[in-house]
From TrEMBL:
It holds the Pfam family p450. SUPFAM superfamilies: Cytochrome P450. Coiled coil: none annotated. Signal peptide: none annotated. Belongs to the cytochrome P450 family. Transmembrane segments: none annotated. It comes from the Bacteria. The lineage of its organism: Bacteria, Bacillati, Actinomycetota, Actinomycetes, Kitasatosporales. This is Cytochrome P450. One of its GO terms (molecular function) is oxidoreductase activity, acting on paired donors, with incorporation or reduction of molecular oxygen. PANTHER family: P450, PUTATIVE (EUROFUNG)-RELATED (PTHR46696). Keywords: Heme, Iron, Metal-binding, Monooxygenase, Oxidoreductase. InterPro entries: Cyt_P450 (IPR001128), Cyt_P450_B (IPR002397), Cyt_P450_CS (IPR017972), Cyt_P450_sf (IPR036396).
């Protein structure tokens, strides 16, 4: 695990100059788009940049420029985002929308799974997965989640000097939980982490991100082949045993990739950034340390406040329509800023700060509608177990460097901090 960062750098280096098509827009230029277009993926510390809130106040659905010859819109308002994400028949999330528009993405790069599919394919795949993500079925993982958390705390307690909370705590916990859920061997956990992290980072261009998806799918195809031969007791083994004739290898790998995508890097970022929030808020730190009943509302408020998944999957309008007075034409691309929507002043006062006691509508950190993250409850189980266990084990924990020295991702779909060095005593 100590070699994770160097592995990621080497892996990105191999993929950075990959070109999927000779013609069409070069996705490696993604980071050079105008600031207004990239605003949903930029932050100032833990907060979305001020331009995003100004845009939301002026135009909750605003025109943005894309170099693909595509008419594009950015949605930053809470009500407007719910309207778009809830209109499944009006918008398409299918990957072919990207591949068909000559923007440097090839059809064979389709990751499959739920995020980039529409009904009826989406409906069929989600129907197969949903039973495994009910609270009743997930409860079987509760003892293992607590065990994984305790194992990480024990290892941290044995360390001398500062500890990087990202590498020692935030990343390993969801990686091991997903290994447990999918039925992937424990020794493959480093591969799981490596195949998750870089795919969301667009700072060096989106080709690297799509290359990461391809690498991930190749890796998962190998896992699927092993499960076909000897089905295990995890999610993949169950799908093979119960629905093997209904799912081809690409669909199985896509579903596994979706679980990996939705549950590893996102939860890891929440664990690291949420801890940073607590380290800067002594009253909330003490409340989580001393009061079990405040943990659940605090987790929900953190999910809203941090919204680590900054934008939803791109939607393409299937037909002409009107959303909140804005005319959207068939074929238009719509990007929903989840971080912007969750800070909308319409939800209540002081949405720019953490308040576990606020009575606000449901947040959109996991999306909304048919594409709402299927693993939302699993992520919350991990957060509810990890935060209080960490603080109660290390009540004197503090940052090892000034907060202003921390390095955050500069342009990423999933926001996060590169390292979080802490002193435990």
């Amino acid at each position: 695990m100590s070699n994770l960062r160097s592995n990621i750098v080497a892996w990105l280096g191999r993929k950075y100059f990959t070109r999927i098509q000779k013609n069409g827009f070069d996705l490696s230029k993604m980071s050079f788009l105008p600031d207004a277009t990239l605003a949903p993926m930029r932050r100032d510390g833990l907060d979305p940049i001020a331009d995003l809130s100004r845009t939301r106040a002026k135009e909750p659905i605003s025109k943005i420029w894309l170099p693909f010859g595509i008419n594009a819109w950015l949605v930053t308002g809470y009500d407007e985002t719910k309207a778009v994400l809830g209109k499944a028949k009006g918008f398409s999330s299918d990957f072919t929308n990207l591949a068909e528009r000559n923007i440097g993405v090839a059809p064979q790069q389709n990751p499959g799974g739920l995020g980039f599919s529409d009904p009826p394919t989406h409906t069929r795949l989600r129907r197969l997965l949903t039973p495994e993500f009910t609270m009743r079925r997930l409860s079987r993982l509760t003892p293992r989640i607590h065990s994984i958390v305790e194992e990480r705390l024990e290892e941290m307690a044995a360390a001398e000097g500062p500890v990087d909370l990202v590498q020692s705590f935030a990343l390993p916990i969801p990686a091991l939980v997903i290994c447990e859920l999918l039925g992937v061997p424990y020794e493959d956990r480093d591969d799981f982490q490596r195949h998750s992290t870089a795919r969301f980072d667009l700072f060096d261009g989106a080709n690297a991100s799509f290359g990461a998806m391809s690498d991930s799918l190749s890796y998962l195809h190998g896992i699927v082949r092993k499960q076909r031969e000897t089905p295990g007791d995890g999610l993949l083994g169950m799908l093979v045993k119960e629905h093997g004739d209904e799912l081809d290898d690409h669909e199985l790998a896509g579903l596994a990739d979706g679980v990996l995508t939705g549950g590893l890097e996102t939860t890891a970022s929440m664990l690291a950034l949420g801890t940073l929030v607590l380290l800067q808020a002594p009253e909330q730190f003490a409340a989580i340390r001393d009061q079990d009943e405040v943990v659940d509302p605090f987790v929900e408020e953190l999910l809203r406040y941090l919204t680590v998944v900054q934008v939803a999957f791109p939607r393409f309008a299937r037909e002409d329509m009107e959303i909140a007075g804005t005319r959207i034409s068939a074929g238009d691309l719509v990007l929903c800023s989840l971080s912007g929507a969750n800070r909308d002043e319409k939800l209540g006062p002081d949405m720019e700060r953490v308040d576990p006691h606020r009575q606000a509508p449901s947040h959109l950190a996991f999306g909304y509608g048919i594409h709402r993250c299927i693993g939302a409850e699993l992520a919350k189980m991990e957060l509810r177990a990890a935060y209080p266990a960490l603080i109660r084990r290390f009540p004197g924990m503090r940052l090892a460097v000034p907060a202003e020295k921390l390095s955050f991702r500069k342009l990423s779909i999933v926001y996060g901090v590169d390292e979080l060095p802490v002193l435990l005593k």
